[in-house]
Amino acid sequence: MSHRFTLLLAGLLTASAALAQPVSLTLDDVVSLAREQSLAGKQAATLQKTNYWTFRTFMAGFKPQLSLSGSLPSFTRSFVQVIQPDGTIVFQPVSNNNSILSLSLSQNIPLTGGSIYVQQQVQRFDNFLAKNTLYNGVPFEVGLSQPLFRFNQMKWDRQTEPLRYAESNQQYIEAMEQVALDATGFYFDLLVAQVNLQIAETNRANNDTLYKIAQHKLTLGRISRNDLLQLQLSVLNAQKDLASARQTAEVAALKLRSFVGSRDDRPLALAIPNRLNPFTVDIKLALEQAFANRSAALTFRRQQLEADRDLEKARKENGLNATLNASFGLSNRGSRPTDLYVQPQDRQFVEIQFVLPIMTWGRAKARTETALATQQLTVQIVEQNKRSMEQQIYTQVTLLDMLRQQVTLTAEADQIAQNRYQIAQDRFKLSDLSVTDLGIATQDKDRARRDAILALRDYWQVYYTIRLLTLYDFETNQKLTQSR
């Protein structure tokens, strides 16, 4: 029994040790997880799906629409007033069913803004008091409703709505690149915290060792009491720094897990992404790709179209507005449904409805001038946004080249500072270096290591920012799509 318990306990300890092993992640791993699992990525996918179906709904409006309408049954039983020839009123009982059924096929005409339809209609009237049934119907009818001298909304919608849908597709790609950029920020927040934790642990261990050596030196008279107290203070500061660094690392790890949507509580071991692929970003190509791929470029075009649309709408709605309604068909009546198709009679209808403003007290001109001023303002705003976009891209491309050099320089400085600290530590052990000089070497070592990590963070954030601003991968020379 005790042997089984020992084996079980050993198995549990082994499993616990396996669960406690840290999860090794690279920057690419975190970016991929964020794109697949983060709430921001899922929200972007849901929004893109919504925009897709919205556009499908819009496009369906320009296809033939077949509909069946009517009222079946339509039963009435009551007393109704009937005016007699002498002007008096008599309340007569009624009990009937007046049902109607209509099948129509309609089609919008975007070029003219009108619509055409074909329909068939059947009406049945049952008089339950007289016990008879009558039928009335339209076996065939074709009709047209055509606005005259009016603003054509459909013509403009066919220009703006595809742009709006294209915007939504590019906005989805931008949203995923924004997720990558945010994930990079959380990644380096944790990486910096872990590096600070490593520095704090190393400093605490080194200070403990040096303090013990200094105690031995004090007994030999090779160090002053003041230097010993300074080292003791360094030990206490290192312990405080270690506790603070540990808490900061835990908070940063929690934020990273929360962003990427991970429920794994195992410790995270992040790799330092210090391998930079050599590639160049041509500023002219970056600008071309930005204005070809970004949703903002499509937004600029759509906003200008909408301003032109509003100006045309203001001008046309201030003048003569008319609508032509015309139809031609066949109609008949009878006591049986088949009677409707026996020698039906012609059915024609033509109507022109119009509105002509005569006195508006300047309202028409005010509307037109407002729309014209809005159009001019839109052009100015779009031009300003284009320049801001160009300046932002130019800044980021220039910054990328500078930061690539900065990463190399800070890495070299980090290596030199680490070697210098090791030499300073060895010299202190040999009583060839003061405590003050040792402290300076320690500070330089820590600063150089942090600067190297911060330079990497700045580089990778600019790298993903350029991808976001251009929607272009300069490493592979390919446009970013929804699948990449």
UniProtKB/TrEMBL annotation:
Residues of the signal peptide: 1-20
Q: Which UniProt keywords apply?
A: Cell outer membrane, Membrane, Signal, Transmembrane, Transmembrane beta strand, Transport
Which Gene Ontology cellular-component terms appear in the entry? cell outer membrane; efflux pump complex
| Superkingdom in the source lineage | Bacteria
Where is this chain's protein located in or outside the cell?
Cell outer membrane
GO MF annotation, one: porin activity
Q: What InterPro entries does the record tag this protein with?
A: OMP_efflux, TolC-like
Q: Which family does it belong to?
A: Belongs to the outer membrane factor (OMF) (TC 1.B.17) family.
This protein is called: TolC family protein
Report the source organism.
Spirosoma rhododendri
